[in-house]
């Protein structure tokens, strides 16, 4: 199913529809401030496994992150000291994924072997509103191919052609970017850029 959302007049009923799909264990494709992404409710293990299979990996090996709608509940999902939190606050919402030590609230299936978790607060009203309506973060992974940039990663209609029948809902929020977020590893108490992207870090 393809659902078109307009930024000037977002409809509450449509967001409830998206949340109902997530709560039923569905997986969705949605726009972010970078590339389009695939997501699900982090509390649903079957949905996480479906996304991993779609990406050709496993839940334990996949590079998945959490989308939060703010940093207010960050301590529920990650361990972070004040200096790192201050930098995150300066840069979020924005095109960054911060890798942090995971808390015990992050589902075991979702954590990497290093017990870390990626945190995203995108500068885009659709994922932020979805998380707000859902009441907890969603798991996210970009649909872009790491080796080549192709049109189906940016054009919602082409995304629908490729993924129709593989996911439960595709949200058309207009054309997306073709560059992913900047990934920053903070697990050693410093800021190590492990994948350059759109975001440029402000200290």
Folded structure, characterized:
By secondary structure, the chain is an alpha/beta fold. The chain is 27% helix and 22% strand. The chain has six helices and eleven strands. Strands 1, 2, 3, 4, 5, 6, 7, 8, 9, 10 and 11 form an eleven-stranded mixed β-sheet that branches. Helix 1 crosses helix 5.
Task: Give a short summary of the structure.
With about 200 residues, the chain is of the alpha/beta class. It has six helices and eleven strands.
Biggest pleated-sheet summary: 11 strands, mixed
Cα-to-Cα separation, first versus last residue: 42 Å
- Number of separate strands: 11
Q: In percent terms, what proportion of residues is strand?
A: 15-25%
Report the radius of gyration as a whole number of Å: 16 Å
Low-confidence stretches: none
| Strand/helix succession | EHEEHEHEHEEHEHEEE
Helical percentage: 25-40%
Which class do the helix and strand fractions yield? alpha/beta
Pfam families: Sua5_yciO_yrdC
Domain YrdC-like: 12-199
Protein name: Threonylcarbamoyl-AMP synthase
């Amino acid at each position: 199913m393809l659902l078109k959302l307009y930024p000037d007049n977002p409809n509450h009923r449509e967001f409830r529809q998206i949340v109902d799909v997530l709560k039923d264990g569905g997986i969705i494709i949605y726009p972010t401030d970078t590339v389009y992404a695939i997501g699900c409710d982090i509390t649903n293990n079957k949905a996480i496994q479906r996304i991993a299979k779609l990406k050709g990996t496993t839940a334990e090996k996949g590079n998945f992150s959490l989308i939060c709608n703010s940093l207010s509940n960050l301590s529920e999902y990650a361990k972070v000291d004040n200096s790192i939190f201050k930098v995150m606050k300066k840069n979020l919402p924005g095109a960054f994924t911060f890798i942090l030590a995971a808390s015990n609230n992050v589902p075991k299936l979702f954590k990497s072997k290093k017990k870390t978790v990626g945190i995203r607060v995108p500068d885009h009203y659709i994922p932020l509103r979805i998380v707000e309506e859902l009441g907890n973060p969603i798991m996210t992974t970009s649909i872009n191919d790491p080796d080549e940039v192709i049109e189906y990663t940016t054009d919602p209609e082409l995304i629908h052609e490729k993924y129709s029948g593989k996911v439960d809902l595709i949200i058309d929020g207009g054309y997306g970017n073709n560059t992913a977020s900047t990934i920053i590893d903070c697990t050693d108490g410093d800021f190590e850029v492990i994948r350059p992207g759109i975001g440029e870090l402000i200290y």
